[in-house]
Amino acid sequence: MKIDVSTESLARVLETLGDIYRVNPQLLRPNDKLKDFFDLDSWSLGIGTEKLNKWLAEVGFTDVNPTPTTILDLVLLLEDRKLQSSTSLPLSN
């Protein structure tokens, strides 16, 4: 199955995850499981996961349902959020 996402969104998520978890973003793949990052992070007192949750809140995700399981899921959430914000109409007075 082919899923189209913008290169910008994919790069943003890969760079953010790489920075947060101190991993070379070029080594990350869209089908990598986020659980693997959480497990890796348990060795460093959860600091990376705290940073990820903070970043998610900054980009507008305070309650994510369903919870993303892969990097691609996270990219798709970001794309969906961007689409929703660009198509929503402002409330009139």
Describe the structure.
The longest helix has 17 residues. Helices cover 56% and strands 0% of the residues. The protein has 93 residues and is mainly α. It has 4 helices and no strands.
What distinguishing features does this structure have?
4 helices, globular, disordered C terminus, mainly alpha
- What integer value in Å does the Rg equal? 14 Å
CA(first)-CA(last) distance: 45 Å
Tally the helices.
Answer: 4
Helix content: 55-70%
DSSP strand tally: 0
- Shape category: globular
What structural class do helix, strand and pairing data support? mainly alpha
Unreliable residue stretches:
88-93
The pLDDT mean sits at: 80
Main beta sheet: none
Strand content: under 5%
Order of helices and strands: HHHH
Layout of strands and helices, then pairs:
Blueprint: H1 7-21, H2 34-41, H3 47-58, H4 71-87
Helix pairs in contact: 1-3, 1-4
Structure, briefly:
The protein is built from four helices and no strands. With 93 residues, the protein is mainly alpha-helical.
